[in-house]
């Protein structure tokens, strides 16, 4: 159990460092064939095989991700290590295994950090180039904060305020066109208080009214900045096509107190 626990910890560490799920569930596959069903004499055999297959799939994917970091592990030695551990014939002592894995973990983290910083710089450069090009298009405006936007349809009524709840449909992409979110394909608009989202949205949606449409090009400092989020790398410029479907004003904070005051005044008059 001790060795398995160490492997599990290492797998989790690698998954975090590489931004990949540990032991992710495989995609749905066709029903097992008659041949595969007959390969196992009982459920224990089938479960053991499934566990091995899951671990093997994870390690294969992990090796590929590590290669992206410039770390190329020997697959034959990995398999040999597993076999020797089961046979209780490890070429390394427990102390050597622990020290080696600690050093490996540090190398993975360092390589992942280096790659993240490199990618962040590339994202920043690509984003700036995209914004510079977009800024030259007809109808595009740039605010004092660096937000770029193009109103495609003004809408009617009043523009939303920070305290309002807005209902929108939208599509979000990176500057390379990769889509990371889309309410249209989900078939469900998004509803949120305007001051509860990224600054680029809070500022940008005030430039249209109900029924309006706008294209927002948001620099990283008005989005997710240097950290990024899953699906959106660090220093990413975000491109949104947004349709403002509805605006729901926040309830007036003084409505209830005023009603109470009127009721109190009525009671006084009766007395």
UniProtKB/TrEMBL annotation:
This is Peptidyl-prolyl cis-trans isomerase. PANTHER family: 39 KDA FK506-BINDING NUCLEAR PROTEIN (PTHR43811:SF19), FKBP-TYPE PEPTIDYL-PROLYL CIS-TRANS ISOMERASE FKPA (PTHR43811). It is an enzyme of class 5 (isomerase). SUPFAM superfamilies: FKBP-like. One of its GO terms (biological process) is protein folding. Belongs to the FKBP-type PPIase family. It catalyses: [protein]-peptidylproline (omega=180) = [protein]-peptidylproline (omega=0). Pfam families: FKBP_C (PF00254), FKBP_N (PF01346). PPIases accelerate the folding of proteins. It catalyzes the cis-trans isomerization of proline imidic peptide bonds in oligopeptides. Residues 259-271 have a biased composition (Basic and acidic residues). The keyword Isomerase applies. Residues 1-24 form the signal peptide. The keyword Signal applies. Its EC number is 5.2.1.8. Keywords: Isomerase, Rotamase, Signal. InterPro entries: PPIase_dom_sf, PPIase_FKBP_dom, PPIase_FKBP_N, PPIase_FKBP_N_sf. Residues 251-271 are annotated as: Disordered. One of its GO terms (molecular function) is peptidyl-prolyl cis-trans isomerase activity. It comes from Atlantibacter subterraneus. Residues 163-248 form the PPIase FKBP-type domain. NCBIfam families: PRK10902.1.
